[in-house]
Amino acid sequence: MERNDNFWWYITLRGPAGLEDVLSSAAESTGCIGSTVTNEGDAVDLQVYYRANQDLGEWLKMLQPYLEPWREIEIKDMGRVENRAWNTEWMDAFPPLNVGEKLVVMAPWHAGKEDPGRLPIFIYPGSAFGTGYHQSTQAVLTLMERWLKPGDAVADIGCGTAILSIAALKMGAERAYARDLDPSVVREAVRNTLELNGIAGEKLDIAVGDLLKGFGHTVDLLLANILYEPNMAMLPDVARVLKPGGRAIFSGLVVEEGEKFKEKLAENGLRLVDEVRLDDWCGLAVAKI
Ligand SMILES: C[S@@+](CC[C@H](N)C(=O)[O-])C[C@H]1O[C@@H](n2cnc3c(N)ncnc32)[C@H](O)[C@@H]1O
């Protein structure tokens, strides 16, 4: 059989802990191309990979003499594994995603592949929430296209990657204040905004912060894609930080939560002006009364 690297065979050997060397030596003696070890309680599994230039049965025949003296070793399973381009495949993820009427969210290595006329928001998909692929983020972006005015000062509460601040600044906001409880998220946000999107440092104030506690600015537009509970907790403080004529967009609410949230708007000096539903998620745009 010819050399074929489109797939490999694997044979998983299981033995009691302590026999790792025996398992590895059997694997190496039979010409495997690699192996991975996992421990499961008192047992150890060695998954051994072989080239597909001969049938799996041939590899098994070669392995058996090495296993025969070891009754406690068993063959747990075997099969075929596709040899995908592991090192580059992940980069295919996060292809350009059109959001709303004007925006496209994408990983930086897809630059240039977006639909012409769309404004690209580059996000490096790291550990922070906010790649743009979640409906709750898309709901805010869609409402922001309708309710952001050029020159607005914006608060982005629960900023994650700072995707909402980036979009706001790229759509003409003058300044954004991004806050998140998680300090690691804040570091990632700096890389996303300043480096990838070419946003001037002075336009963006990113800091660790818990909702609106200690927030001393007033803004034209507040953005908050956080869950129902933090949104509710923050609601009494929202009108205070909004300038006259100010607006807020709340997201991270499933539809039933959105209905409960709406009931609390008037008593907090706000009124509903717009709404977007994406699957089970809803985004609400409100104005200061
Ligand atoms: C659903 S993510 C939204 C990320 C991004 N803004 C987006 O729209 O895709 C919510 C973010 O809120 C942050 N968060 C949760 N509770 C918070 C709080 N009390 N104060 C500030 N940020 C909070 C989380 O760390 C997380 O990054």
Task: Give me some keywords for this one.
289 residues; alpha/beta; Alpha-Beta Plaits; Rossmann fold; 8 helices; binds S-adenosylmethionine
How does this structure look, described?
Helix content is 29%, strand content 34%. It has 289 residues and is of the alpha/beta class. The protein folds into two domains: 7-83, Alpha-Beta Plaits (2-Layer Sandwich), CATH 3.30.70.120; 90-288, Vaccinia Virus protein VP39 (Rossmann fold). The strands form three sheets. A seven-stranded mixed β-sheet has the order 10-9-8-11-12-14-13, sandwiched between helices. β9 (175-180), α6 and β10 form a beta-alpha-beta unit. α4 (135-147) runs parallel beside α5 (163-170). The longest helix is centred in the middle third of the chain and has 15 residues, at 183-197. The chain is elongated and about 85 Å long. The chain starts with 6 loop residues before the first strand and ends with a strand. S-adenosylmethionine (SAM) binds at residues 128-130, 136-137, 140, 157-160, 163-164, 179-182, 185, 209-211, 225-226, 230, 252. S-adenosyl-L-methionine binds at residues 137, 158, 180, 225. It is found in: Cytoplasm. Its EC number is 2.1.1.-.
